[in-house]
Design a protein that fits this description.
The chain is mainly α and about 140 residues long. The chain has helices spanning about 5, 10-15, 30-35, 45-55, 60-80, 85-90, 95-100, 105-115, 120-135.
């Protein structure tokens, strides 16, 4: 399936897994994740992608989109503009197994990180952990 076609589909359609409505007493995060799975992935914002990625939802589709956003916004970071640390943090803090399963994405993220400067200490710590965890992943 083409990348353009995938972006018109929801995570439910891409995964072939329709979740039931969350219970009424669910947290706002759980309700949001359920709702976001029903939106076309190409329409998800950086914030929404960060929420899904932070919950390890739809990673084969959400991580590539997040990396596109991070790559496109890296020059703004270096020029002192706005940079979405929440999305970067969500991506960086995925388990090492995620990157082992998707070495191409790990390589792309390392390339993006090479372009970033003046990160907050918290994000820098996440970067260092990611780089350590993905040594030898290619």
């Amino acid at each position: 399936m083409s990348k353009d076609r995938e972006r018109t589909l929801t995570l439910e359609a891409l995964e072939g897994d329709i979740w039931p409505e969350p219970p009424d007493e669910s947290t706002s995060l759980v309700k949001a994740v359920h709702r976001l799975r029903r939106l076309p992935v190409g329409e998800l914002t950086a914030y929404e992608l960060g929420r899904l990625i932070g919950q390890d939802v739809g990673l084969p589709w959400t991580l590539p989109l997040a990396l596109e956003i991070l790559r496109e916004t890296a020059p703004d970071q270096n020029d002192g503009g706005f940079y979405d640390d929440d999305l970067l943090s969500a991506v960086l803090t995925r388990k090492a197994e995620t990157w082992t399963a998707h070495p191409d994405l790990a390589k792309e993220l390392r390339q993006i990180l090479d372009t970033l400067t003046d990160l907050s200490p918290y994000i820098q710590r996440d970067c260092d952990k990611f780089l350590e965890a993905t040594q030898g992943v290619d």
